[in-house]
Amino acid sequence: MPDLPYRTKAGEPLLEADHIDDHAKGGRDYPSVMIALCPNCHRNKTHGQDGPALAERLRVVAASLHGRWQKLHPPR
C-alpha cells in the first residue's frame, strides 16, 4: 500500500493493531473488531476529539474485511 505515510526501517508499512473498542475497558479480542492503523490514526482514534466517530467508521471497515477473509478461509 504505497499511500501509507509511515514505513519501518525495512520499508514495510508501519502499522499498529487496534482494538476498536478499548481492550482495557472490556473490548473484545476478536479479529472482527480489530484493525491495523498507522500510529497517528491509532492515536487519533484513541485520544482524538473525533475518536468515537472514527471508531464507528473503523468498525464497519473491520467487519467488512473480516467477512471477506472468512469467505476466503472457511472453517474446516
From TrEMBL:
- Key words, A-Z: Endonuclease, Hydrolase, Nuclease
For this UniProt entry, the molecular function terms from Gene Ontology, in alphabetical order, are: endonuclease activity; nucleic acid binding; zinc ion binding
- A Pfam family it matches: HNH
Annotated HNH domain residues: 11-47
- Protein name (record): HNH endonuclease
Q: What is the lineage of its organism?
A: Bacteria, Bacillati, Actinomycetota, Actinomycetes, Kitasatosporales
